[in-house]
Write a structure and sequence with these properties.
Elements (H helix, E strand, L loop, with lengths): L2 H35 L7 E7 L12 E2 L5 E3 L25 H15 L3 H8 L3 E6 L4 E4 L6
Antiparallel strand pairs: 1-2, 1-3, 1-4, 4-5
């Protein structure tokens, strides 16, 4: 094998290993968030977005996974046609959120904070909104628009 072929093969091996790692990490994150949410009577899903800003006041526009600013949601709200509301309001810190819920919300955000932004970018891309559910599943909207 020539040096160029060897380098090409190493790059392919790296990309494949990264793909497998990201798929495993996605499943693990979904399972852990689902496990935590399922222990609450009030928390049903967690949603955050990730993107590179279009403008950053003269500073470089770098990708950021905004998991620390994500929203927790309660039960699915249905619209007048009986369909899930596409734009439900996030849960308010009110009587419905217990002290135990607050601890669980912090657990989720602390866990997500441990993962470098590069992994989020590799897993779900730039300009995405990720929704996690109590059953361990997640959905990715890769057409997320931001200001």
């Amino acid at each position: 094998m020539t040096t160029i072929e060897g380098i090409s093969q190493l790059v392919k091996d790296y990309e494949e290993a990264k793909k497998v790692l990201c798929e495993s990490l996605e499943d693990e994150i979904g399972s852990l968030i689902g496990e935590i949410l399922s222990k609450s009577d009030n928390l049903h899903s967690y949603v955050f977005n990730q993107y590179s800003p279009h403008f950053n006041d003269g500073d470089p526009c770098t990708f950021n996974a905004n998991h620390q600013y994500g929203e927790f949601y309660g039960e699915v709200v249905l619209d007048e046609d009986g369909e899930p509301d596409d734009d439900p309001e996030g849960l308010e810190y009110s009587d419905i959120i217990t002290e135990r819920d607050t601890v669980m919300m912090k657990q989720i955000k602390d866990m997500l904070k441990q993962i470098p932004d590069d992994f989020y970018l590799d897993m779900w891309g730039d300009g995405s909104e990720i929704s996690f559910f109590r059953n361990g599943e997640f959905e990715v909207d890769d057409d997320y628009e931001h200001d």
